[in-house]
Amino acid sequence: MAGKEDLKLLGLLVSPFVIRVRMALSMKGLNYEYVEEDLFNKSELLLKLNPVHKKVPVLIHNGKPICESLVILQYVDELFTGRAILPTDPYERATARFWAAYIEDKLCPAWIGILKAKAEEERAEKVKETLAAIEHVEVAFAKCSNGNVFFGGDSIGYLDIVLGSFLFWFEALRRMYGLEIINTSKTPLLAAWAERFGGSVEAKEVVPEADKAVQYANKLHAAAAVKLVSSE
Amino acid sequence: MAGKEDLKLLGLLVSPFVIRVRMALSMKGLNYEYVEEDLFNKSELLLKLNPVHKKVPVLIHNGKPICESLVILQYVDELFTGRAILPTDPYERATARFWAAYIEDKLCPAWIGILKAKAEEERAEKVKETLAAIEHVEVAFAKCSNGNVFFGGDSIGYLDIVLGSFLFWFEALRRMYGLEIINTSKTPLLAAWAERFGGSVEAKEVVPEADKAVQYANKLHAAAAVKLVSSE
């Protein structure tokens, strides 16, 4: 099917959610037009195609939009041949979906909360939540990987993409706040996995340097400060 | 496959999330052992099988647990023959997953927030969020149903189950706070759909009377009051 499809992706280079989609498209060997969005000045196309959330990524397939990274990953996996993204066994697939939801609903708001926190106390609370969540994910790795090197077995799969997309942001948080979310003492399995993920061809293609995330965080903080001052 | 399977469900009669699973199992013609949990005194089995969230529903299939209602629905649909729960077309399936996530992430915390609110101001805020979210779902119904009577077409499907499981709680909120979340003026499509859903065989089998939800809410409020008093 690859090659004949009209695929366009509205994205943002530092968005983990966009990185997930780019990794999936790459794993399926699909070509696509990539359009960088400016989230400080969203395009008419983005607002039209994702009126509910007004967020990237939006994948446009033969003119039809698909939104939300986990939905897009499953769509791409179900529609296109090539390397499987989700596990093929139904029970393993259910387990992967369970942990993807956990990463999305618990881990993600926690670490993004560290960035968004307006006071030290709030930041400390979000750090605590992030570290508690990542310890659950450490246990998940042991269960899902079955002794293999990735969540997905011997190669990158759904959960590797879902969690791996956060890693350069975790490195940015280390540089900004000295925080080690994944480390060899508390989460040794994930620490080894993160090394492998970072060294993989799939990640190297689309994951930016952590500096880009630091720069984007500074831009967000500056914009929030301006907003605060102008609303006073 | 039905009949040979060992299926056990840890549930709670007034839980919308459990109702979803019971509807899905029923649509597949599957027999299962139902075990009512007491969430004020959770069983060892529940804590062992869902150590992360410690919540119902937990479906135990041939000894293996599956947690989280949306994950279970997809598992049941993928594994068992019988009536399809999710749409079969990949784009329609992506759309259904998008709206299921919206209902779960935006609508659900909003209406549960109405119940949990400790002050009138907080309750008013949650009412506002609930009404904003349901208006989005009204638009979703027009798109997903394609002029048919259910989200899933001419019979109940994934989104019907996901949203329909809330309806008796919406009725409970009407009785408790005079609040009409779905009504003929603002959400006429959903109002007509809710009538049809309530009258369906699938719903009648497992959806309790709204009074049961009111009673459970009173029990939760009483427990919260006791907790508040005892922590003073």
From TrEMBL, chains A, B:
<keyword id="KW-0808">Transferase</keyword>
<dbReference type="InterPro" id="IPR004045">
    <property type="entry name" value="Glutathione_S-Trfase_N"/>
</dbReference>
<dbReference type="Pfam" id="PF13410">
    <property type="entry name" value="GST_C_2"/>
</dbReference>
<protein>
    <recommendedName>
        <fullName>Glutathione S-transferase</fullName>
        <ecNumber>2.5.1.18</ecNumber>
    </recommendedName>
</protein>
<dbReference type="GO" id="GO:0004364">
    <property type="term" value="F:glutathione transferase activity"/>
</dbReference>
<dbReference type="GO" id="GO:0006749">
    <property type="term" value="P:glutathione metabolic process"/>
</dbReference>
<comment type="similarity">
    <text>Belongs to the GST superfamily.</text>
</comment>
<dbReference type="InterPro" id="IPR045074">
    <property type="entry name" value="GST_C_Tau"/>
</dbReference>
<keyword id="KW-0963">Cytoplasm</keyword>
<dbReference type="GO" id="GO:0005829">
    <property type="term" value="C:cytosol"/>
</dbReference>
<feature type="domain" description="GST N-terminal">
    <location>
        <begin position="5"/>
        <end position="84"/>
    </location>
</feature>
<dbReference type="Pfam" id="PF02798">
    <property type="entry name" value="GST_N"/>
</dbReference>
<feature type="domain" description="GST C-terminal">
    <location>
        <begin position="89"/>
        <end position="220"/>
    </location>
</feature>
<dbReference type="InterPro" id="IPR036282">
    <property type="entry name" value="Glutathione-S-Trfase_C_sf"/>
</dbReference>
<dbReference type="InterPro" id="IPR045073">
    <property type="entry name" value="Omega/Tau-like"/>
</dbReference>
<comment type="function">
    <text>Is involved in the conjugation of reduced glutathione to a wide number of exogenous and endogenous hydrophobic electrophiles.</text>
</comment>
<dbReference type="InterPro" id="IPR036249">
    <property type="entry name" value="Thioredoxin-like_sf"/>
</dbReference>
<dbReference type="InterPro" id="IPR040079">
    <property type="entry name" value="Glutathione_S-Trfase"/>
</dbReference>
<dbReference type="InterPro" id="IPR010987">
    <property type="entry name" value="Glutathione-S-Trfase_C-like"/>
</dbReference>
